[in-house]
Design brief:
By secondary structure, the protein is of the alpha/beta class. The protein is built from 9 helices and 6 strands. A hairpin with an 8-residue loop joins β2 and β3. α8 crosses α9. GO terms for molecular function: DNA binding.
Length: 305
């Protein structure tokens, strides 16, 4: 696709849905030595979660975080920080689906429409419907590449590099709130949950702290924006400095073998799509449509997997 369209790094984007919890208890406690167990006082909100959609381009530009909130009534004025977008889910759930995906496309991805772009995402069901694919290609002047099911921990920038530092910063903000001031409790004895305004500020601040360098490196580490001549393939080797997965990297031999495999696959895909190097844009688009008409997509209903 890069060879066909001649994308720039600011033309290649990725998005991913991730779960953010209103209650984030730490993994340990401090108590008297020798005591076998100690209860942790929570705020009774362990099942209360929100979906946050993060997106960015290969040049390091980050898109506004998009948070799904349950309910129909928008939060009071001043609750939502500048640079963060929300969507109220009238069904009382903050779960993504194809309709939410189309709303994200309109409000976030659709802010730019100046050049043909490439959107890389996983095979979550809400990304694969005919309406979503039609919107991406026609309304938003973009192409699609799907990350195969089971490969997100290796090929998806968000899973490989963004989500862990984002959630670490979010956890740090929650811990700071937990340890500050005098707690108040509900009639049932639960500590009161943080205010929604504070929670949204933490999400915005946590995403701000994920640096453009991490984002740029993630696209290279996942093989999306590496030099086509193979001179940057060493980035694919194991490097756990910004990763939250257990992928141990490719060996040098595997990288060398992949060049031949990639050349053969590219030739085969061009033949299957009926494309050649001199095809015009209309023929290319038809080929891409045929290639994405794929009935073997991962049918996962959980965007956070």
């Amino acid at each position: 696709m890069r060879a066909l369209r001649q994308y720039r790094p600011e033309d290649i984007g990725h998005m991913n849905e991730t779960t953010t919890w209103l209650e984030m208890p730490c993994s340990g406690t401090a108590h008297i030595e020798g005591v076998k167990s100690e209860g942790v006082v929570g705020n009774g909100q362990r099942k209360r979660r929100y979906t946050t959609i993060l997106g960015a381009y290969a040049d390091g530009t980050k898109l506004p975080p998009f948070v799904l909130l349950p309910g129909k009534r928008s939060p009071p004025s001043g609750t939502v920080p500048a640079g963060l977008l929300i969507h109220m889910c009238g069904d009382g759930k903050s779960v993504s689906n194809d309709n939410i995906t189309r709303i994200w496309l309109t409000r976030v991805w659709g802010r730019r429409n100046d050049r043909r772009r490439l959107l890389v995402w996983d095979t979550f069901r809400g990304h694969c419907t005919a309406d979503v694919k039609e919107d991406v290609r026609q309304k938003f002047n973009s192409d699609i590449v799907y990350i195969p099911g089971g490969c997100t921990g290796i090929l998806q920038p968000a899973d490989v590099s963004w989500n862990q530092p984002f959630k670490d910063h979010l956890q740090a903000a929650y811990d700071e709130w937990l340890l500050s001031g005098m707690p108040t409790f509900t009639p049932k004895g639960n500590r009161r949950a943080p205010q929604l305004a504070a929670f949204l500020r933490w999400i915005k601040a946590a995403w701000d702290k994920v640096t453009p360098d991490i984002v740029r490196h993630s696209f290279k580490k996942c093989g999306i924006w590496n030099a086509e001549d193979g001179t940057e393939d060493q980035v694919l080797l194991h490097d756990d400095s910004d990763s939250d997965d257990e992928f141990m990297g490719f060996s040098n031999e595997e990288i060398e073998d992949s060049h031949e495999v990639a050349a053969n696959m590219a030739s085969t895909n061009m033949e299957l799509m009926g494309l050649d190097a001199d095809s015009d844009d209309e023929e290319q688009e038809e080929g891409v449509d045929d290639d994405d008409g794929n009935s073997d997509l991962d049918d996962s209903t959980s965007p956070g997997d």
